[in-house]
TrEMBL record:
Every Glycosyl transferase family domain range: 214-356
Keyword tags: Transferase
Molecular function via GO: glycosyltransferase activity
InterPro entries xrefs: Glyco_trans_1 (IPR001296)
Keyword Transferase assigned: yes
CDD domains per UniProt: GT4_PimA-like (cd03801)
Organism classification: Bacteria, Pseudomonadati, Bacteroidota, Flavobacteriia, Flavobacteriales
Top-level division of the source organism's lineage: Bacteria
Gene3D superfamilies xrefs: Glycogen Phosphorylase B
Chain coiled-coil ranges: none
Name of protein: Glycosyltransferase involved in cell wall bisynthesis
One Pfam family from the record: Glycos_transf_1
Length: 384
C-alpha cells in the first residue's frame, strides 16, 4: 500500500509525510507552500514550510504564481471562514488533479487528508474500491469553531457544512486526543469511525538537564488570542508581578492598545524562527498553556523536550501527567498557586523537569507506528 498525504500548511512540521517517506510508503506529499527558494520572502514568511527528511521529488506544491494569487486573494478577505472556504476549495482543486495523476486502477492507496481540504477529493474518489480515506480532523470540530467565532454567517455555515460532509464520507477519522474525540461525538459523528492517534514528536534539542533561573520565567507560546487562553495568562502575570518574569511568544490577535497595557506585565517577542524559539525555550522555566480548545497542543511537547514543566488546561491532549511533569488547571487563580508552589519548592521543580524529558519518549515514531497500525487494523488496513 502507498500513501498520499495532502494538506494546507506545515501540519505538525510535516511529520506524517516524513514518517511514511522514511518507510518508503509515501507516494507524494501535496501541500500549498514549500520553501524551495532562498529569497527573503520565502525565508521569512515560510521559514517552517520545509522538511529536510522528505525527498524533494516527493513534494508537490504551488508554483510561485499560485502562491502570489492565493496571498492576494486572502488579503482582500476579512472573514476567517471565508478565507478557510477559499483556501480549502483552491487547494482541493489543485490536490485532486495531482492525485488523479498519481493513482492507478490496481494499487491500493491510502489518502491521508485534513480538515477543510478534503471534500472534493472524497466526493470524486469515494467509489474507488482501491482507495481508503483517512481524514485527519485537525481540531476538535464544531466546538472549536463556535469558540473561534460565535457569530453565524453564510461563510461559517458553508464551512461547517463542508467539514460535516467530510466526516460523513471518510472511511476513518483520525484525531490526536481523547478530548477531540469527545467533542466530535457530541455532534453525533459515528464513534466507530474515530481513531485516536497522538502526534509524533521528533526531538531536536539535546538537553539532558534543565537549569532554572533564580527568578522564574513563565512562558506562553502560540497565537496570542482568546482561543489559546491568553487573557488567563495575562491575569496570572498581573497577580505574580515582581515574583516571576513573563514572556509571550507568538503573533498577537489583540489590539495594539491591549498589548501596550499588557506589556507592563509581559514581554512580547512576536513570532519567532525555530532557531530563536529554541533559545527562548532554554531560558524558560515553566510553560503555561491555558487553551480553551485544542486538538493536541504541540507546544506542550516542545517545552517538555527542553525539560520545562507545563501547566495546561484540560481542553487538549493529556500530555501533562498531573503532579509529575506539570499540572492541569484552567483558571488563573489555580495556575498562580501552582507556579508559587514550584517557585518555593525547587527540588520538586527539578523532578518535574526530569519527568518532562522522559515524557517525550511516549511520542516517538515507534509509538506512533504501533498505535496507528493497531487502529487501522479495525478497518482491515495494514500499512507495510
Amino acid at each position: 500500500m502507498k500513501i498520499i498525504v495532502y494538506h494546507i500548511g506545515a501540519r505538525d512540521y510535516y511529520s506524517i509525510g516524513e514518517f511514511f517517506s522514511k518507510r518508503n510508503l509515501l507516494l507524494c506529499l501535496i501541500t500549498d507552500y514549500w520553501k524551495r527558494s532562498k529569497s527573503t520572502f520565502f525565508t521569512n514568511k515560510f521559514s517552517r514550510r520545509f522538511n529536510k527528511n522528505i525527498q524533494s521529488n516527493q513534494i508537490i506544491s504551488y508554483s510561485i504564481l499560485q502562491i502570489f494569487f492565493v496571498e492576494v486573494c486572502i488579503k482582500l478577505m476579512s472573514n476567517k471562514f471565508r478565507i478557510w472556504n477559499f483556501t480549502g476549495n483552491y487547494f482541493t482543486n489543485f490536490a485532486l488533479k495531482k492525485i488523479l495523476n498519481k493513482i492507478d486502477s490496481t494499487e491500493k492507496i491510502l489518502l491521508w487528508g485534513y480538515t477543510g481540504g478534503n471534500l472534493k477529493i472524497l466526493k470524486r474518489l469515494k467509489k474507488n474500491q482501491n482507495v481508503f480515506f483517512l481524514h485527519n480532523q485537525i481540531d476538535p470540530g464544531i466546538v472549536y469553531y463556535d469558540i473561534e467565532n460565535g457569530e453565524n454567517s453564510t461563510y461559517k455555515e458553508q464551512f461547517l457544512k463542508n467539514i460535516q460532509e467530510e466526516w460523513k464520507l471518510a472511511d476513518a477519522i483520525l484525531v490526536n486526543s481523547e478530548f477531540s474525540k469527545k467533542c466530535l461525538e457530541k455532534y453525533q459523528v459515528n464513534a466507530d469511525k474515530i481513531i485516536v492517534v497522538p502526534l509524533i514528536y521528533n526531538v531536536t534539542s539535546n538537553i539532558k538537564k534543565k537549569h532554572f533561573n533564580p527568578v522564574l520565567t513563565i512562558g506562553f507560546v502560540g497565537n496570542i488570542n482568546e482561543m489559546k487562553g491568553f487573557p488567563i495568562f495575562l491575569d496570572v502575570a498581573k497577580q505574580l508581578k515582581g515574583i516571576c518574569n513573563f514572556t509571550a511568544i507568538g503573533t498577537s490577535h489583540f489590539s495594539e492598545n491591549y498589548i501596550d497595557n499588557a506589556s507592563e506585565f509581559i514581554k512580547f517577542t512576536g513570532h519567532m524562527s525555530m532557531k530563536n524559539l529554541s533559545v527562548a525555550y532554554q531560558n524558560m522555566d515553566v510553560l503555561v498553556f491555558p487553551t480553551q480548545c485544542d486538538g493536541f497542543g504541540m507546544v506542550q511537547l516542545e517545552a517538555m523536550s527542553y525539560g520545562i514543566p507545563v501547566i495546561a488546561s484540560p481542553n487538549c491532549a493529556t500530555v501533562v501527567q498531573e503532579n509529575s511533569n506539570g499540572f492541569i488547571e484552567d483558571d488563573a487563580n489555580s495556575i498562580v498557586k501552582r507556579i508559587l508552589y514550584l517557585n518555593e519548592n525547587r527540588e520538586i521543580l527539578k523532578q518535574f523537569s526530569e519527568n518532562a524529558l522522559l515524557r517525550i519518549n511516549d511520542y516517538s515514531e515507534a509509538n506512533f507506528e504501533k498505535i496507528l497500525s493497531n487502529e487501522l487494523l479495525k478497518f482491515n488496513i495494514e500499512i507495510k
